[in-house]
């Protein structure tokens, strides 16, 4: 992929700290640093995968980008416009261009509305008129996602999980968005149905020239679907790279550990597999470890990891890593001085 | 006779909509020291099977027939009372959601102590020492202090460890783990899988691991049973299932799953359609509405229920395609597509 001059989405130093309050007057006593300084670009037509363990801030990131939440710091630039603190009314026309697919195909659809009403809602909310009427437009989309247009008058409970996820996808496609944030779009589905939805997302991307940010904890699904992948740990990106580089030569110890923890069905070689086992669980985002947040679980940690935060530094072409002692570093790479601020 | 043997087990639930045939003629054997993995889609009858083995359908509306032999004793006809005494002592279960299996108002230690003392006539102090020992064994740090913590004070991974400690408190000879790691992060899942592997070797117990994750099953299992619509459709060693699978549904599962240990394939090969209704089970082969090979069986797939037949060396397959046809299809049509980058 060539360097695109103008990214569709640019996130710079994005932060979301949720206040923890106490008492009647709601005095703030601490904060959950759910997202704590993210920077990345997404160019038109690509898929960025966002992976990381539970609670690392993936969903919060998705909700910030789509401005379902307001950031407490940093910038979100969509098509060249800073939308970080735009009012809801100013955001309304932009909502057509940016849509979110949710994890749970059961709870994200209103059970009392027909499929037609659910998928047609965006037209009504946005006051969009279509050439042959809303019903025809909705039926076209149902067909596009592999549902029968005759299902127009049915209710969500009459569908299986995979079909409900298709309804959810149909709804997000209604207004031909440019960017889709898909939060765990397949994790609630059976393996065989997951593959149907993954293929559907790929087909739609090609057909409609969509750009995706796909949030998932399943590293195999993310490898399959993404062009670029960002790995998050406790509210920060620790590594971001093109798919192949990230999976074949990960540089951050956490990425290495994540990849080695994925169970793979290679029964012939199961005893030979080299495993890296992390100790313990992910620490709390309320009081995250100082400096490198991964140091409490990292087998390579040294004194500097506990005192100096490693910046997200460019160590190879399109490959950024935040670690003092990265792995798989190409020999000609000149690491930046530890402690220098992250550029741009 | 094997340590555990199921013979033609059926578990049916009468409901307002009709009879749900959740498990419909399941047979398998398991020896001490061995691990059986059960995989299959949501609703294929995995959990209902494990609950039947533990006798947890007794006293419900479930209609059970067939036989379950555990160490020479038949359990389907045994009294609920008797099966209860075996539960905990001879067999134990690890659930997906530890919170639902633990009491929120008692400390983790108190719950292990109680479980232990039901089956062992020992003092509280001895039981407490045993609980601390177990918590340490499953990798809870500072077990002598954490023994007095409450379930909500533990992280998800620690709770799962504590539940394993509870299940192990009476050295069960049969351990059933139903989706033991589904709710956990991948790094914690890896820790728990290691732990279960180590403990099984140490205790020489028989282990049944139920999951929809083929990777998890491949990591632990000696043998694998693939369920579809309440029936076993393929059974074999882990190598049989992953290296030379013979059932079209198993092929479909493998084609649906992106794999990190292989080159990335351009496209996944999903199974079309959706899992079957267990009330109006499709006629003939339950998989036929979704099966790409159904036309090759000259209509038999739609009308005749295929039998589970042995291919070779304990590898069992339920499909009308001939052995030669299945092997040729796997080698020439399916395997190349799974491996092509
Ligand atoms: N509204 C909120 N108020 C306070 N804390 C919140 C809020 N929303 C999220 N958090 C916290 O922020 C952190 C990040 O949550 P988030 O949902 O973004 O994680 P995630 O990466 O999506 O995790 P998962 O994989 O479990 O979905 C968590 O610790 C969560 O508890
Ligand atoms: N008490 C019950 N009454 C009626 N039907 C039931 C009952 N318990 C289970 N079933 C049905 O039996 C079928 C098999 O259920 P089971 O829980 O064994 O599925 P499973 O294979 O464990 O699926 P999952 O992967 O979703 O856990 C399902 O269709 C379920 O709805
Ligand atoms: S900076 Fe240090 S602690 Fe952090 S990941 Fe790198 S080596 Fe590990
Ligand atoms: S019996 Fe027929 S329908 Fe069933 S799996 Fe075999 S080929 Fe497919
Ligand atoms: Mg989330
Ligand atoms: Mg189940």
UniProtKB/TrEMBL annotation, chain A:
Alphabetic keyword roster: ATP-binding, Nucleotide-binding, Transport
Entry protein name: ABC transporter ATP-binding protein
Source organism (scientific name): Sphaerisporangium corydalis
SMART domains per the UniProt record, alphabetical: AAA (SM00382)
Family: Belongs to the ABC transporter superfamily.
Source domain of life: Bacteria
CDD domains: ABC_NikE_OppD_transporters
GO function term, MF aspect, one: ATP binding
InterPro entries documented for this protein: AAA+_ATPase, ABC_transp_ATP-bind, ABC_transporter-like_ATP-bd, ABC_transporter-like_CS, Oligopep_ABC_C, P-loop_NTPase
Positions of transmembrane segments: none
Record's keyword annotation contains ATP-binding: yes
Gene3D superfamilies in alphabetical order: P-loop containing nucleotide triphosphate hydrolases
Segments forming domain ABC transporter: 9-259
UniProtKB/TrEMBL annotation, chain B:
Location within or outside the cell: Cell membrane
Membrane topology: Peripheral membrane protein
A single GO molecular function term of this UniProt record: ATP binding
Highest taxon in the source lineage: Bacteria
SMART domains per record: AAA
Record keywords, A-Z: ATP-binding, Cell membrane, Membrane, Nucleotide-binding, Transport
Residue ranges of domain ABC transporter in the record: 4-254
Sequence similarity: Belongs to the ABC transporter superfamily.
Stated name of the protein: ABC transporter ATP-binding protein
């Amino acid at each position: 992929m060539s360097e695109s001059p103008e990214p569709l989405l640019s996130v710079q130093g994005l932060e979301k700290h949720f206040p923890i309050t106490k008492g009647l007057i709601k005095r703030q006593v601490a904060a959950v640093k759910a997202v704590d300084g993210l920077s990345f670009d997404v160019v038109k037509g690509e898929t960025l995968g966002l992976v990381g363990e539970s609670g690392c801030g993936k969903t919060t990131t998705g909700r910030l980008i789509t401005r379902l939440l307001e950031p407490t710091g940093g910038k979100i630039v969509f098509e060249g416009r800073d939308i970080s603190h735009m009012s809801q009314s100013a955001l309304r026309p932009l909502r057509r261009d940016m849509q979110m697919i949710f994890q749970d195909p059961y709870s994200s659809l209103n059970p009392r509305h027909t499929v037609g009403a659910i998928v047609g809602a965006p037209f009504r909310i946005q006051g969009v008129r279509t050439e042959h009427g809303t019903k025809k437009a909705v039926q076209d989309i149902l067909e596009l996602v592999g549902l029968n247009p005759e299902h127009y008058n049915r209710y969500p409970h009459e569908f299986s999980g995979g079909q409900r996820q298709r309804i959810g996808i149909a709804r997000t496609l209604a207004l031909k968005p440019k960017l889709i944030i898909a939060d765990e779009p397949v994790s609630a589905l059976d393996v065989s149905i997951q593959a149907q939805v993954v293929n559907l997302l790929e087909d739609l991307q090609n057909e409609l020239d969509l750009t995706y940010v796909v949030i998932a904890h399943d590293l195999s699904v993310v490898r399959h679907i993404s062009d670029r992948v960002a790995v998050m740990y406790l509210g920060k990106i620790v590594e971001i790279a093109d798919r192949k580089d990230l999976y074949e030569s990960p540089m951050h110890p956490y990425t290495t550990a994540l990849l080695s923890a994925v169970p793979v069905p290679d029964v012939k070689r199961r005893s030979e597999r080299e495993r890296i086992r992390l100790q313990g669980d992910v620490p709390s985002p309320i009081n995250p470890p100082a400096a490198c947040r991964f140091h409490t679980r990292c087998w390579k940690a040294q004194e500097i990891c506990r005192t100096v935060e490693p910046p997200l530094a460019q160590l190879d072409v399109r490959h950024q890593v935040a670690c003092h002692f990265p792995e798989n570093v190409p020999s000609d790479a000149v690491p930046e001085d530890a402690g220098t601020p992250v550029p741009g | 006779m094997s340590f555990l043997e199921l013979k033609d087990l059926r578990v049916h639930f009468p409901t307002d909509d009709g009879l749900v045939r959740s498990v419909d003629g399941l047979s398998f054997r398991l020896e001490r020291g061995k691990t059986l993995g059960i995989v299959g889609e949501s609703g294929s009858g995995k959990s209902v099977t494990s609950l039947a083995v533990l006798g947890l359908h007794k006293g419900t509306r479930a209609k059970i027939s067939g036989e379950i032999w555990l160490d020479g004793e038949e359990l389907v006809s045994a009294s609920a009372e008797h099966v209860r005494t075996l539960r905990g002592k001879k067999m134990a279960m690890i659930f997906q959601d530890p919170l639902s299996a633990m009491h929120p108002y008692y400390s983790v230690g108190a719950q292990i102590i109680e479980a232990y003392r039901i089956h062992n006539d020992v003092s509280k102090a001895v039981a407490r020492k045993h609980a601390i020992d177990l918590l340490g064994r499953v990798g809870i740090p500072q077990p002598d202090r954490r023994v007095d913590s409450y379930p909500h004070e533990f992280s998800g991974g620690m709770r799962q460890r504590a539940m394993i400690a509870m299940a192990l408190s009476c050295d069960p000879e049969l351990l059933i783990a139903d989706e033991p790691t589904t709710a956990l992060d991948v790094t914690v899942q890896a820790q728990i899988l290691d732990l279960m592997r180590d403990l099984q070797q140490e205790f020489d117990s028989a282990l049944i691991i139920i999951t929809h994750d083929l990777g998890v099953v491949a990591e632990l299992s000696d043998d694998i049973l693939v369920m579809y619509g309440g029936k076993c459709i393929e059974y074999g060693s882990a190598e049989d299932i992953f290296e030379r699978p013979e059932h079209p549904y198993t092929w479909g599962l493998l084609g649906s799953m992106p794999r990190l240990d292989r080159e990335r394939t351009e496209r996944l090969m999903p199974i079309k359609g959706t899992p079957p209704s267990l009330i109006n089970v499709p006629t003939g082969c339950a998989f036929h509405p979704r099966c790409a090979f159904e036309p090759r069986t000259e209509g038999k797939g739609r009308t005749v229920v295929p039998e589970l037949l042995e291919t070779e060396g304990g590898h069992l397959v339920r499909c009308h395609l001939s052995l030669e046809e299945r092997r040729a299809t796997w080698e020439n049509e399916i395997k190349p597509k799974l491996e092509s980058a």
